[in-house]
């Protein structure tokens, strides 16, 4: 009660007419983070619901917990395995040694601790850099600071490689927040996913730090290709030679960004989002059908020069960022399609595009990031044609 009374006591200074009026966005951000907003609907015609923006964003962050935990473990596992061959390097290894944790890849706690040493700096820098610009735009416009940034910051962190320089992490999230969201008016008005905008900016501006074989495991001298890079060069049959089974890829003990390697962790998050009705199942169905149909078609066509033509749909599912993008990016409600029919089309377009980019374009063995951004651009157009088709159908029926 003491904290509630404190907020009530200082609130008059931040509302209109108060001496700190221009900083109301900061007050509201802190107060609404701790307490449910006091302003609720009490009369018709508005519907009352326990689902508000804060709860939706909180649910999405909760859904990422399996990916976070496994990302910590896998990052530490891959790092400790590499250290066994190349030796420790960097300040993180020095801290691990000083704490007496060690680098045993068979020790779950050692892997989690080492992974945390890479995850926390990236996440903290993301929160600080992106949060500053969120607050600046909110104060200048007189808007509330939206909880959507908590989701953006977590998703952005989970799609970053562990070796990403922190100054690039800050630059990417600032670009994503400002160019991907705030220039269009803020949360709810952006047509692109801000986390992906920031990641795409870094991908094209600093490709050596965001792609290749040496960025996924942050140990000097170590080089390890992702499953998609192996498939693009040598085909699916080469996975076994590199010690990668389908179950390894499904569980997630392979090279990749923090949160994207484990399909099973993503599916746990998906189950939570579907049960809480935060994610729309039509988007999932559309994307899966688009990916499966086009990859199956390419399997039938075949190619003597491109081994990716032979990659079946169940390998596309567990490699790269497909599962993570499917669960947390495709289902993102703001930048996706909003009509039910449009959601099928939107999802199918992304599923088709990710296979197209992975297989036909040899320059981008991943593809999910670009496919989702491509879908974001076309989502308003898809909804427009769906709505126009409904209008014409009703006009014809009532003529």
UniProtKB/TrEMBL annotation:
It is a multi-pass membrane protein. One of its GO terms (molecular function) is FMN binding. Its EC number is 7.2.1.1. It is found in: Cell membrane. Keywords: Cell inner membrane, Cell membrane, Flavoprotein, FMN, Ion transport, Membrane, NAD, Phosphoprotein, Sodium, Sodium transport, Translocase, Transmembrane, Transmembrane helix, Transport, Ubiquinone. It comes from Celeribacter halophilus. The modification FMN phosphoryl threonine is found at residue 226. GO terms for biological process: respiratory electron transport chain; sodium ion transport; transmembrane transport. The chain crosses the membrane at residues 56-73, 118-142, 154-179, 191-209, 256-276, 283-301, 313-331, 343-361, 367-387. GO terms for cellular component: plasma membrane. Composed of six subunits; NqrA, NqrB, NqrC, NqrD, NqrE and NqrF. NQR complex catalyzes the reduction of ubiquinone-1 to ubiquinol by two successive reactions, coupled with the transport of Na(+) ions from the cytoplasm to the periplasm. NqrA to NqrE are probably involved in the second step, the conversion of ubisemiquinone to ubiquinol. InterPro entries: NqrB, NqrB/RnfD. Its cofactor is FMN. It catalyses: a ubiquinone + n Na(+)(in) + NADH + H(+) = a ubiquinol + n Na(+)(out) + NAD(+). Belongs to the NqrB/RnfD family. Signal peptide: none annotated. This is Na(+)-translocating NADH-quinone reductase subunit B. HAMAP family: NqrB. It comes from the Bacteria.
């Amino acid at each position: 009660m003491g904290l509630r009374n404190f907020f009530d006591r200082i609130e008059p200074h931040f509302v209109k007419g108060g001496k700190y009026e221009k900083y109301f966005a900061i007050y509201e951000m802190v107060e609404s983070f701790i307490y449910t907003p006091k302003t609720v609907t009490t009369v018709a015609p508005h519907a009352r619901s326990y689902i508000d923006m804060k709860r939706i964003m909180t649910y999405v962050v909760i859904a990422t917990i399996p990916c976070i935990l496994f990302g910590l473990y896998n990052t530490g596992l891959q790092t400790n395995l590499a250290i066994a061959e190349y030796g420790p390097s960097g300040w993180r290894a020095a801290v691990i040694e000083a704490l007496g944790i060690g680098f045993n890849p068979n020790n779950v706690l050692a892997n989690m601790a080492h992974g945390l040493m890479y995850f926390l700096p990236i996440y903290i820098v993301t929160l600080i850099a992106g949060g500053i610009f969120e607050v600046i735009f909110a104060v200048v416009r007189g808007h509330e600071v939206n909880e959507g940034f908590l989701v953006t910051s977590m998703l952005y962190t989970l799609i970053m490689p562990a070796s990403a320089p922190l100054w690039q992490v800050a630059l990417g999230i600032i670009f994503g927040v400002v160019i991907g969201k705030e220039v269009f008016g803020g949360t709810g008005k952006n047509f692109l996913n801000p986390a992906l905008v920031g990641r795409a900016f870094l991908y094209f501006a600093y490709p050596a730090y965001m792609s290749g074989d040496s960025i996924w495991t942050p140990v000097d001298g170590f080089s390890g290709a992702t499953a998609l890079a192996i498939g693009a060069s040598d085909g699916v049959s080469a996975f076994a030679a590199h010690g990668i089974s389908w179950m390894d890829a499904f569980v997630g003990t392979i090279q990749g960004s923090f949160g994207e390697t484990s399909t099973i962790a993503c599916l746990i998050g998906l189950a939570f989002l579907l049960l809480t009705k935060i994610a729309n199942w039509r988007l999932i169905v559309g994307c899966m059908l688009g990916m499966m149909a086009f990859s199956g078609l390419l399997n039938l066509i075949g190619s003597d020069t491109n081994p990716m033509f032979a990659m079946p749909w169940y390998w596309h599912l567990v490699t790269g960022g497909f599962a993570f993008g499917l669960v947390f990016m495709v289902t993102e409600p703001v930048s996706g399609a909003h009509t039910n029919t449009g959601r099928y089309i939107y999802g199918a377009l992304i599923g088709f595009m990710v296979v197209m980019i992975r297989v036909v374009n040899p320059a981008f063995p991943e593809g999910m990031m670009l496919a989702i951004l491509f879908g974001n651009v076309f989502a308003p157009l898809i909804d427009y044609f769906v709505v126009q088709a409904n209008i014409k159908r009703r006009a014809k029926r009532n003529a």
